[in-house]
Amino acid sequence: MNFEFTDDQRAIKRTANEFLAARYKLETVRELASDDRGFTDAQWRELAELGWPGVIVPEADGGLGLGAVELVVIQEEMGYALAPSPFFSSACAALLLVAAGTDEQRSRWLPGLSDGSVRGTVAVWDTAAGWAPDHSEAEPSPDGTLSTVKIGVADAASADVLIVAGADGRHYLVELSRPGVSISAQKSLDPTRKLYEVSLDGAPAEPLATEGERLAHAYATIITALAAENVGVAQRAMEMAVAYAGDRKQFDRPIGSFQAVAHRCAQMLLEVEGARSLAYWAAWALDHEPSTALRAASMAKAYGSDAGFRVCGSAIQVHGGIGFTWEHDLHFFFKRAKANAHAFGDARWHRDRVADLAGV
Amino acid sequence: VSSTVAGYDAERVDLTLSPAEEAFRDEFRAWLEANNPGREPAGDEEGFEFRRAWQRKLHEAGWAGVSWPREYGGRGATLVEQAIFNEEIARVRAPQLANGLGLAMGGPTVIAHGTDEQKQRYLEPILSAEEIWCQGFSEPESGSDLASLKTRAVRDGDDWVVTGQKVWTTFAHHAKWCMLVARTNPDAPKHKGLTYFLMDMEQDAVQVRPLRQITGEAEFNELFIEGARIPDENIVGGEGNGWAVAITTLMHERATLAFSLQVGVQIAMTELLDRARSTRGRNGEAASADPVIRQRLAQLLIEAEVLRLNAYRGLSATMRNGVPGPEGSLGKWHWSEINQALTELAIDMAGPHAMLDEDEWTYRFLRARANSIEGGTSEILKNIVAERVLGLPRMR
What we know:
A: 360 residues, alpha+beta, four-stranded antiparallel sheet, B: 396 residues, four-stranded mixed sheet, 8 strands, disordered N terminus
């Protein structure tokens, strides 16, 4: 039994941490937050050179062929740096293609998604359906085209290929350069991840193979990665709060020496470490124990959603007035954590799944 | 950079048991199956003698003191093996061991700080449950601020004469030895004037009175000590070093505690899910059909999993680095919150039955209120997390 990363996994984590800290200083994050596209070609190229876009794509399809644990390690650091990047949206598309792409779709798209020469994203929520992440009304027309309106599609304007969730768990691949596709920016809670409305009006769509179990596993990987991202986001917010509490003096003493503040910080640690344990466990289960992976992933997503929001909110409280200003960086973390909490199923939805899987 | 990513072995985080750990588990599981004595009889005396016999049986087979080094009669088990041992005991709901405090705290303290004579004298009877141990730390006016304790020990020839009062002393009425911390130098700073004694409970100067709790039970005792005598050779760790020795005892209490606690929660969680399926909700359907109850059940399932995973992480970190990681300091605090929420939900789902004292959940609901007080209040544990893990400035 060993619940510690190996030296190699630690090395990835450290490398990711150092690389992202050097490239995504908070001034850079702030600039990208007000940029329309949210990243530069040079930034994407560097990530691609590290091999990250293909981290979880099998070697046969042009990727590194690593596991969910490695994806989670990177994603946690992406959250810690709050790096605005299409890395996650593109990884989601690659995951779904690995799970359910036809041979032709795989060979056409996965090498490019792995080396970064193309980018993908995923469209889940359609305006005609409920908000559950597995609920869609989108059905193809008899001519094979798709017409639907999807919201909250990350990085759609800079992506080449879109995986669309449709009715009854079916999925479709749409090339975004084809006719019948229109994309418009949405104003989002979190300015460091760009969200779009994608309207498909008779857009050419190829069905993916119907692979229910494999798709469920891919979605479990996606939510585990998001949960890990919230671990990183919350970890950073906690560190900022603890540093501030040690520094800031009122009534002639550091505010961190007041129990009301110190206990709030202790609560942050409890939630950050809990979220971390669940995310790492879920990643391990995805790679090694598929029978518990769906339960573990939903637990990680439910807990990580709440913890991310609460820890960042609490960090704002510790900072007092300055934490509420635009000038301070905390609000970016708070917004990312809250947006992540609602992507791919919120805490309530995933708790419901946990109850289902426990047989109650 | 990219070569580090590409060239490594991805197969190593492993939450399954190694072949050696599996062999340990299988061996103990088989032994337990053949030897589990079943449910404890009612009544304090009968119950206690039953536990004593159970521990003797474990000891004869070499299963008492699994964490103790082999040279002192233990099994020299790794932390993971200790965890497996606790998990297996809990899984079959085997009875408690009679001398839990001696095994978890007293013995390890003697091993760490005792003289050769003391090791010779005390360790074997702890393992065999021939001599039961209790803990005399807390006092009516010294709870969280343990170092302020007032029980006095004054030298008289080769003896010390002790006067004072201790409280929350488990098993005092069965105990032969009390791990007693007393003030031997009232002029020294409060942490420096303390000495750790082994006090013989079998003397008239020590009076044990049961302390009735909100559950109606008397699980703990008060000790009234009026001129009790302790020979000088019963000091552990030297005069004036009582604080450091007491800390060892408390650290041993906390080391594998998180693991035992999480095992208890897993079992309680299974019982709670059964109760949710079998209890009638407001319209006669199962309580678990209520969406709010479902949400609370799921949240508890998740929290219980966090407790389990943090305990595993704590073990792995301790085995790798010799010290627990940050998650190690969270277990007892987190457990108390989970157990309180769990027992509260058991009551809440029962509607008007919550007003009745019909089954063991009422007792468990009431007993859980002590969880955030006993063995370090949650407030003190949060102080420790804030100061020692997060490095926040000291509180006043």
